Every structure is written in C-alpha cells, then in structure tokens.
# Entry
Amino acid sequence: MTYVADKERYSKMKYNRCGRSGLKPSALSLGLWHNFGSGDNYDNMVNMITTAFDNGITHFDLANNYGPYPGSAEENFGKIMANVMKPYRDELIISTKAGYTMWDGPYGDWGSRKYLVASLDQSLKRMGLDYVDIFYHHRPDPETPMEETARALAHIVKSGKALYAGVSNYNADQTKKMAALMKAEGVPLLIHQPRYNMLERWIENGLQTVLEYDGIGSISFCPLAQGLLTNKYIHGIPENSRATKSVFLTPEKIKPELIEKIVKLNAIAEKRGQTLAQMAVAWNLRGNKLTSVLIGASRPSQIVENVKALENSEFTAEELAAIDAVLAE
# Structure
C-alpha cells in the first residue's frame, strides 16, 4: 500500500527560522541515533518516520556511524526514502554528520578534508540521495587545523553535496572561530547541534551568546537526558531500559539525589498537565533560544507524545523559577 501523508500535517507543528538563514526546520526533529540500526524492526522504522512526518516533523537527523553497525541507520533510512518517502523529498530536511570513527586507518575519523569528503560520499550512497540538506562536522578535531575543516565544509556546500553546513559538540570559542572561517570561505555556518537539557545546561555559559551574535541556529540533542527526564526511572531502573544496555547512561549514574530531582520535576509537569518528557521538550524551546529539539523514539506513540508538548510550550516565571530551584538543589 502506498503511503499518503496526512494533509493536516503542517498545522500540527511549529517551524522556526534557523539563525539568519532562509531555512525553517520543524520545532521538533527526529534523530535516528537509536532504533534504526541493523537489528531493529524495519516496519517499526517506517511507522516512526511516517508518524513523524504526519505530525509535521520535516527534519530527520543522521550520522555516518549511527547503527549498529555503523552506517546501517543511513542504509535503513535510504530504503525508507526509496520505498516510502521519495515523493516528499523536497519537503524534508535530511542531515548527516562525520567526525567520529567510521573506518580503520588514519583517514576514517576526526576532521580532515579527506575524511569529511569521503564520508559524505559514502553517506549519500547509503541513503541513495544526491545531496543532504545539512552536513555537520560532528566534533572538533584537536590536531587538524580548523581552517582545513572549514575549507572542507565550504567545498562540500559549493559542490552541491550539501545545501548547508553545521557543527556539533563545539564549545563557544571553537564555534566563534569556525563561524569566522566559514564566513571567509563564503559559506555561512548554519547551525550548531549541542547536547542540552535540564540537567546539562553548559550552552548557556557563552555558546548561546555566540550563536545569537553570529546568526547561527541551534538544535539540541538528548533533550530527555537519555530518558532520565521521563517518568521511566522514578520507581527504579526497569528491565531492558536504556540504563541497562547503554554506555552513555549506566545504573551508577542514576543516584538517589537525581531521582529525587526527577520526582519533583515530574510534579511540576503534572501541574502543567504534561508528562515530564513533554515538559522537558517544551523547556528546551522556551524563549525561542533553540531552533529545534531532536527527539529520539523507539515507537511511534512516543513521537506523538512529544509533539503534544507544543500544545503547552509557554512557561510562567513562577514555573521556570520552580524548575531552576529543583535543579539547583
């Protein structure tokens, strides 16, 4: 059966201008970091992509190494594009990244021109695309001159293999330097993708100021802190939860004092008529400081729940003060 998108999809979503560009990504974007790898169910992947699009999500975010195995998320997304989403390509923002280890040897990691150009060529083949909308350098390289990385990103955009360039995991000073280098190459730095949530607020200490000054958009990943900012862990660590199988979130990190904060945040969310996950997503978008928030999902219902966060995305001063008080404890 041929997929036909919901005609009302754009009325369900907000779209925010990305910095000083003409691009308007959806306020919520779907990340394919987890649950789109070689061992995941293909039909469920299709249902998540189509559910996201039916709810107005137009931005789908990947990276060369997403899987497992590395590259399999792009392969699966490419299959979905070819079989299901091809008629809607011009309605989508598709992004990918390179910067972490992808293949053996000295040319399969970090930020050299050789690695970035070769990696994007491989990504395009895996996804069956002529171009991506955004190509990111995934992390700063302490050894490759940033000038080389900037020239590589500019070359990629000028070649037509990506429409825009971005960075991820850069600090404020690194972002400021990269923005200046990209400007000198005649290709503006479109967007920054940092890790940001209620429990990790480092971007507020300088990075957001740089982004605003240079007209760079921003899209946060891990807005739910790998699932901590949900009601999943309030009563302990469930079997088969991410904390039982992830190297990024381990049981040792889920301390009693952290659970106490999460319980209090959940109470604030309930007063707002939201789940904690919905409040966490809405909090990331408060004050229009971020262009978009990257959500992850293991099933379509989670996507629908997160989109509903936009139904109550405003906070009173009292609510923000109460959240800050809990986080400061």
